[in-house]
């Protein structure tokens, strides 16, 4: 998917004319504004930290929220979905990088949520998202992606009833080739498409 979060609508239109149809945003206000003015057949993903008071700017338009990183956010998405008769497709963001500042669930927390997936009838669990450690050391990145790939396989074996759980969003402009070796079904590409 094309990460368009730092770029104006004109840049998205150029990519759209070149054939790109999946775009990702991370700021709710920008997201809602771009949805209004850009072609209606764009598939929009949300990839940023989503504050619960901004759900109404994102959930009606996002085909996938990739960055569900807390139980509180998940509960609020469920509550919003119930009130608005809407099912939201999400990815659980897993913390795999070395930085403590990264968002996301520990693997055990994600398993606890998935064991209780029936408590979220307005959420469709589609898979996992993660970001590798911010480093130039490809062996560290490779190990991070191997870890999430292994966890994804484990989850799919453990929860065969989650039939739609088939997306692994890992990799960005600098490390997507490594991500593809580890089962990525989506890569988040910004600068490699739109430039610095």
Number of strands: 8
Overall, the morphology is: globular
What is the CATH superfamily? Answer: Alanine racemase
Helical content band: 25-40%
User: And the CATH topology?
Assistant: TIM Barrel
Radius of gyration: 16 Å
Taken together, the total number of domains comes to 1
Percentage beta strand: 15-25%
| Poorly predicted parts | none
Q: So how many helices?
A: 8
CATH class: Alpha Beta
SS-derived structural category = alpha/beta
Any idea what the CATH architecture is? Alpha-Beta Barrel
- Major sheet attributes: 8 strands, parallel
Which H/E pattern describes the elements?
Answer: EHEHEHEHEHEHEHEH
**What distance lies between the first and last C-alpha atoms, to the nearest angstrom?**
17 Å
> What is the strand arrangement across the widest sheet?
1-2-3-4-5-6-7-8
List the topology elements.
Blueprint: E1 2-3, H1 9-17, E2 22-25, H2 28-37, E3 43-46, H3 55-58, E4 64-68, H4 71-84, E5 88-94, H5 107-115, E6 123-130, H6 138-158, E7 167-172, H7 176-181, E8 186-188, H8 191-194
Parallel strand pairs: 1-2, 2-3, 3-4, 4-5, 5-6, 6-7, 7-8
Condensed summary:
The protein has 196 residues and is of the alpha/beta class. The chain is built from eight helices and eight strands. It has a single domain (2-194), classed as Alanine racemase (TIM Barrel), CATH 3.20.20.10.
Output the keywords.
TIM Barrel, 8 helices, 8-stranded parallel beta sheet, 196 residues, alpha/beta
Characterize the structure shown.
It is a single chain. The protein is an alpha/beta fold. It has one domain (2-194): Alpha-Beta Barrel (TIM Barrel). It has 8 helices and 8 strands, in the order βαβαβαβαβαβαβαβα. It has helices at 9-17, 28-37, 55-58, 71-84, 107-115, 138-158, 176-181, 191-194; strands at residues 2-3, 22-25, 43-46, 64-68, 88-94, 123-130, 167-172, 186-188. Strands 1-2-3-4-5-6-7-8 form an 8-stranded parallel β-sheet. α2 (28-37) links the parallel β2 and β3 (43-46). 35% of the residues are buried.
């Amino acid at each position: 998917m094309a990460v368009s979060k730092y770029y104006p609508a004109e840049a998205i239109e150029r990519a759209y004319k070149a054939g790109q149809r999946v775009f990702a945003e991370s700021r709710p206000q920008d997201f809602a504004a771009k949805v209004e003015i850009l072609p209606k057949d764009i598939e929009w993903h949300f990839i940023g930290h989503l504050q619960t008071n901004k759900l109404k700017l994102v959930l009606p338009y996002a085909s996938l929220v990739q960055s569900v990183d807390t139980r509180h956010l998940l509960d609020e998405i469920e509550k919003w979905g119930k009130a608005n008769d809407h099912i939201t497709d999400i990815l659980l963001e897993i913390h795999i990088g070395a930085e403590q500042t990264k968002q996301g669930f520990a693997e055990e927390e994600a398993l606890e949520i998935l064991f209780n997936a029936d408590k979220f009838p307005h959420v469709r669990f589609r898979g996992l998202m993660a970001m590798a450690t911010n480093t130039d050391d490809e062996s560290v990145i490779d190990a991070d992606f191997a870890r999430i790939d292994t966890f994804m396989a484990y989850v799919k074996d453990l929860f065969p009833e989650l039939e739609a759980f088939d997306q692994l969003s890992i990799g960005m402009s600098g490390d997507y080739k490594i991500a593809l070796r580890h089962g990525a079904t989506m890569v988040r590409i910004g600068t490699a498409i739109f430039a610095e």
